[in-house]
Amino acid sequence: xxxxxxxxxxxxxxxxxxxxxxxxxxxxxxxxxxxxxxxxxxxxxxxxxxxxxxxxxxxxxxxxxxxxxxxxxxxxxxxxxxxxx
Length: 85
Description:
Layout: H1 2-17, H2 26-62, E1 73-77, E2 80-84
Antiparallel strand pairs: 1-2
Helix pairs in contact: 1-2
């Protein structure tokens, strides 16, 4: 994600520090900046969705709705059965 942030941040910084509305190429700059921010927004939305899905999964563990159950296994050694839970 740093790649996307750096490019979007650099594009916006250039607009804030160097350009005015009457600058040559302002239209192409505006289009490029919007494209960069839109791409960054897509990455951030994906991250946000993944975090939400992870939180939901972890809540299942928190409330005891595990995705698996441990089975009791017995091992016979030296005439005794040892249980492993």
